[in-house]
Amino acid sequence: MRWGCQRNNQRSPKTLLFVFRRFAAKKWLIDLKVTPFFKKIPLNEIKPTHVRQWQNSLTSYRDENGKPYAQTYLKCINNQLTAIFNYAVKYYGLKENPCHKAGSMGKKKADEMLFWTKEEYKKFSFEMMEIFLL
Question: Which residues contact 60 (CB under 8 A, 6 or more apart)?
Answer without folding.
Answer: 68
